[in-house]
Amino acid sequence: SASSRADLSATEVLLNALASTPPANAGDVLKHIAQGRATSSTVYLQAVIDLISENVGDEINGNQTLRFKPQFVSLAVCESLLDAISRIRVNDDATIIDPLVVVALYDYATAHEWELARITLTDSAVYLANALYIQLVRHLQHTPDNLDCQLVGSFALETLDVPLDKVIAAKAGQPCSQHNPEGFNIAASKLAADRALDVIRRLDGSQDQDADQRLYAYMIRLLCAYEREPDAEWVLSLAKNTHGKYIGDNIASMMAMYYRRGNAARAESLFEEFKETCEHGFQKIRNVTVMPDGVSVQVERWQLEHEEGIEKPNVISARELWKFRSRHSAPFFRKALEHVYRKEVDIAVACLQEARYKGLAALSPSQLDAIILNMIGHGYLADAFGVFASFRSGMNAAGGTGIATHQVISSDLPSHLGLAALLNEFGRASDWNRVWQIISGVKGAPGNLVRVETVQALLFQALASKDWPQAIKFANRIATLVFRDGIELQGFSGDCMRSLFGCLVEHGAILSRGERHLLTEVVESLLHKNALAMGSVYEEWNSCILQCAFDSIDTDTLTESLRLWNEISDVISKYDLSKQQLVCLTITNAAISLLDSVPGKYRAVPITTAQVADSGWNGFVLSSDSGTYEAERQEAVWVAGFHSKGSDHLWECMLDVFTKSAHRQYPKILFKYILLVFKFAFLGKASLNIQVVNAANEALLAANQPTVDPGTGNLLSCDKLTNIREQSQKLKLSDGDTSSSAVPNAPRMASACDKALAGASSGQASMRIKYDTPLHGKLKWYKNCCENNEIPHYSTLKLILKDAIKNGMRYHWEPIVRDHMPKYLESLSSCYSGDVTDLRQKYADAIWSQAINQYAALGEIEEAADFFRRIVWLGGYPVSHATAGLLTSLVASSLPLPVLPRDWHGETREVFKMEPAYPPQGDSSADLFIVPSNLGERNKIVAEIGLSMLYSMLRREIWPTTYFYCVLFSVLGQARMDAPLKHIFSNVMPLAMRTMPAELRINPA
Known about the structure:
By secondary structure, the protein is an all-alpha fold. It has 44 helices and 6 strands. Helix content is 61%, strand content 2%.
């Protein structure tokens, strides 16, 4: 079949047909099904097994056995099924086929005297040994509480310090649960292990060395888990005779078995033998050079071979060295763990440090987890921290030129499990210094080692000890995890933030340090400030934080709650977060809840325009002393808080979100709330933003609802609705953003311009421009610069241009590159006292490179080439992403090819050992474009353009990106230009990488 989906559908149809009326050639059909792609899914493979077999009860011992239906099973079917089962990936979490199925197929083939293929026997035995071990680990994963042992990592059973029979007996006494399911038959599992041993006996002298080595490794691990000492020793000797060496994991399994059976002397003897072999093996690679990554390895080998004349230089990467050492770490780990069980922690640490500093072993994260967890379990918390602190810092861990293997000590870290255990223990003891030492110690490590759920637990512990500053630090740490790693919020619940915010509200009067409440400061620090991060985890995060903040505000104390609402609303407006739909919905619902807490009779607003009288809002207001009973007087006093002045940000924010949400949900209900907000804002004499008022009025007008006067805030009578509609339209036109269409004149003041070019503020507007400022804020800032005749710094202008290209319209960015930039470049000489030529190149490279990339993406080759020429004429050269974008556009387009200016100096020939590569020219010097006659000629011209771009960038130390190289290689391949391609790989790239800054060599690909 053509697709995997079609293969699955066809398999399902065939299986249903075979189950209903099996034909004479059912075996042949099943063979093809077993060999198809569908059986890579265990669901369909299990369906095939269920079709050809049935469970039969044993009357003697009451067990169920698997019996195959003869009409379905043949030698070909048997081999195909065994091959399909062997291809299943077996790990801790994978769904696997019951190993007893493999045993049943093996027995069925033996009973019929079928000769299975050697590779089939080997692979099925490997699967059998591996799956049986994983099945046993899953059964014993959650040991009973009365057993002092912890199973950690992929070598879980090697960490046992009690005999297996004791653990199995304790598990048998536990009730069935999700951690102790029914169905695991230890006797049948041991019988299956015997079948795997039979395969080893049949495979004597196999030619497939790799498969045999895997089989020996998995088989030794399984036999040691079942504590079958003679069989394990026999397979170990067979493995050594076949491959001439020990495998570290096998030695660790044997040592664990000897320790559990009380034969410590045999375990120590085996360890010393392995250690001696390890030391001898390490001497062979003691002086091998270690480099940081694969790219550095290739560069170093090239240099040693071509410049120093060393044949086949021996250079490895730091990752390869770590893998070599980690393969020998299991015996050292198991010996140290045994000393921990004996409460000889100092000896355990000394054993690990000796192996580490001698370069014999590098512990894996799961092995460090087991050491740390068992140390903590035995009460050695300080020693567990010492292991973490000493192992996290290495020496020459990344390697480098002149660094040999004996000088490299790797930096080893536990996984998130070990770190969580350490952090939780120190958190319970309120030892925050140690907590932050651990968190800062893993900063920059690959992967997310300190996870959200761990920091949540620390936050709760800080709240329990009433340590508010620490709780705030942990909350900010969670926000950092979200912002830096962009993690999903699956492990995050708002309970910790609600608890924190509730405590801040309760103790806010004591904790607040300035004019604003501490809750507001914490909420602002936690929010993601980019309003354009819509539809991402940041929007979900902002919504959650604001929801928790609103939930923590107690509306029983009206004055304090209105203060908090006003301050949080100011934060929302400051970063324009209401643009995010989820955030807008959260604020809307919270605002509705707040307004609904007002007693019903004080929420009176006009429903129709006919209810609006000349008296305005006065007809819908109750005086505070109109109540007859005490309860009504209290309600009136409570509502009077809404009439107090100083809630401008609150009413603006509510109007904004209600207006935006009115088109999405409950429009009629929201219009009532809009009018209620207008009412309270009028009574409190609030000063509202005219644009927010106009937007709300437009929404009301569109729904034929009453409106308010933007000047006074009072209700408008019916005869003024037409006038306000016209006024609103005029305001909308006058408030439109015309910043991009305004062309700046020459700078007015040289001093102000110098400040802007130096990176300082260009007047008052410059202080508010930031990376996460919304686009309309950037354009407003730029408009102020234009009106004040100031030239923005090129980095700030580049930031505005990138945001306008990404999130704006063409009329936002095109005037900057086409109209404004020439005037800026012309005016620099009159307002800048430094090197104007160099500054003009920086402006051109930063701004016009963006233009080249954008016009190329739009397919406008002529415009892109024009800005390319402008940059070169100013003495610069476009950045790598711009040249790559233009080259990509030339490949994809069928338009005439541009003639680019020559930019090549002879001295570069000596550096890169190559002839100058000039860009192709037209028939005359005045030609700006070339029209190829056929596709082959076009491909050759594009390739020549790409080569000239590469050499020009290297001459100016503009380092080409991986994307540019990929485009160039594709172009050279299409043009069948093999010689330049080989020359770039063998000469240009190694030399370029040698001169490239180390921080840029981040991608070995």
